[in-house]
Amino acid sequence: MGDNQILDCLVVGAGPAGLTAAIYLARFRRTFRVIESGASRAGWIPRSHNHPGFPEGVRGKTLLARMRRQAEKYGARIDAGRVEDLRREGELFVAETSLGEVRARAVILATGVLDNEPNLPGLDEAVARGLVRICPICDGYEVIGQRVGVLSHDAHGAAEARFITTYSDQVALIHVGAEDALPADERARLAADGIEVIETPIESVRLEKRRITALCFNGQAREFDVIYSALGVTPRTQLAVKAGARLEETGRLVVGDHQETTVPGLYAAGDVVRGLNQISTAQGEAATAATDIHNRLRAMA
How many angstroms separate the CA atoms of 301 and 296, rounded? Predict the structure, then answer.
């Protein structure tokens, strides 16, 4: 594949969505290229137990490696780099990348989101050991009966704390935002659900093998088995916005039934699109986008 070739598709990102798109496009025998920065949040997952097909669970990095091998088996080209600009020129998209200019008839953005990380010492180690988690939909089952703290700065965290009561009746909301970010009616609902609200700043964290042994709030030590970070995410939509795509109020990309954004030929899949943030939905969206691109290009031939 020559670097000056006009591609059928450029895929930006190599998480579960981007790699699914690569598998489909390769098997559709399309000319395409994947450019990725190596920052897929799926790589953070110590072990997922809710992804279909893995009854014993699967590490995020293992799943990504398997998907990459599958795509490359069919000839997918996956390059490490960064896409710095994206624009539409006539019938083509032009991407300025750290690897040079890329021109393509269609683009799939699988750029994902950035987690707004809690300011906790030893965060990477705590995530790797399952002491700090970010997705109760993914792994709430694993905290059944445990002492759970939900770190949040707004009412979204309150909703997440209530969600976790499906699995445990020992849930506390650690509210680190402004006092008025948690309205009185929300506080009343939390109290009715048996969820304690803790509102003093975190001073220190101490980790042990199986639990966070102490979070100190103005001298008071508290113990939790798991901390969930409910500080939200920042969608990686910069390229889409540069190309003229429209965003929802949540900051995610507006897409149609086939994952096409408001810019014809520009598609998006995965966490950058809607808020469920699940590997399985990202894969389905990418498959939908890749198939629609293939069918459109086939109709134009």
Answer: 9
**How far is C-alpha 24 from the geometric centre of its chain's CA atoms?**
21
Residue 62 dihedral angles phi and psi, to the nearest 5°: -65, -45
The 3-state DSSP class for residue 194 equals: coil
Interatomic CA distance for residues 201 and 125, integer angstroms: 22
Cβ neighbors of 293 (< 8 A, separation 6 or more) are: 8, 9, 25, 30, 106, 108, 267
Q: Is-contact 7 33, C-beta < 8 A?
A: yes
DSSP labels, 229-263? E---EEE--HHHHHTT--B-TTSPBP--TTSB-SS
65-89 per-residue burial string, b: 16 or more CB within 10 A, e: under 16: eebbebbbeeebbbeebebeebebe
Looking at residue 26, its pLDDT comes to 98
Distance CA 284, CA 259 (A): 10
Q: What is the per-residue pLDDT for 200?
A: 76
Q: Which residues pair with 115 in a beta bridge?
A: 233
Is the pTM higher than 0.90? The answer reads yes
pLDDT tens for 66-115 read 999 999 999 999 999 999 999 999 999 999 999 999 999 999 999 999 99
Predicted pLDDT at 3: 61
Show the CA angle centred on residue 282, arms to residues 279 and 288, nearest 5°: 145
pLDDT of residue 2: 44
Positions of the chain with pLDDT lower than 50, given as ranges: 1-2
- Calculate the average pLDDT of the chain: 93
CA distance 102 to 89: 12
